[in-house]
Amino acid sequence: MESHHIAVISRALLYRLATYATAFFIIWWVARGVSLAHLLHSFSVANLWIFIPASVGSFTVWFVGETFLFATLFSYFHKRTSFLETLPANAAQYFLQLINSAVAGTALVMFMNRRKGVVWLTGGCTLIFQALLDLQIMAAMALIAAAVDPSALIRKFWHVPAIILTLLLLNTWFWRRGRPDSALGRWIYERPSLTSFRSARACHYLGLGAIRTTIFLAYGAMLYFQVNAFGINVNLRALYALLPVVLLVDGLPITPVGLGPVQAILVGGLAAYAPRARLLAMALSISFMQIVFQAPLGLGSAGAFAREVSSMAKLGREPV
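Below the sequence we write its predicted structure tokens.
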């Protein structure tokens, strides 16, 4: 048994090293052709009176907004959950994103299991419900950006978000139409863990969608000020056209807090507005500030909860 635990812990450590190695490789690839002197100089041009407040605003939008979102999500489909109840679990999730992004989402599921008695798999499926709704919103935003901004990169690939949105809307239609006639459809529909999909009503979709859309749009506004703090005069329309792609790569679990992919998207997507060195300095600064704000969440009760979640993941156990 001890050797099994050592093997599990070793795999977890290798996973963490692999995610950071992937992030640094992507950053190295993006930084090709940028001299260290130009990069360091580009950091110095930042207007900290704009960049730091915008970074605080960005973190606040995400953390406070998502805490409210998850409290609402769990209240809709399980038991009434307050903002203050959800706060430590969401803080633990944010801290774990720096260590093991694959385990981070487990914090919210474990919270619902321990505090509200929600079955482990059922809580996980509820988070999947929200993730699919988030993806719908991002796909819709991408299509809007393609329609209103002729210069947007997404305009060349508009069919990708169109296909994604169509498939997700078909999924929503499947659950909203009621109990299917086919045996396979009924088998899927009646899975006990998919209670959130079955019980979701139009008001739930609208309520959760409104909260998430507000978070996305407010984050876009903070990102605009962060970018402009480096003297990169990108217009707001162009930035919002790029926003759905930034949101998508930022949430990928392949690297911690989107480190690497976010730099690639911002440097490539805004190449027309500033030299590569300045774009890279701006993009790295954004991720650095995100890490600075999330790291202290590993202290106190949220940190203890995060360590408990991480320990259980290492041991391959589920809360009961």
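Residues 48-77 form the longest helix (30 residues).
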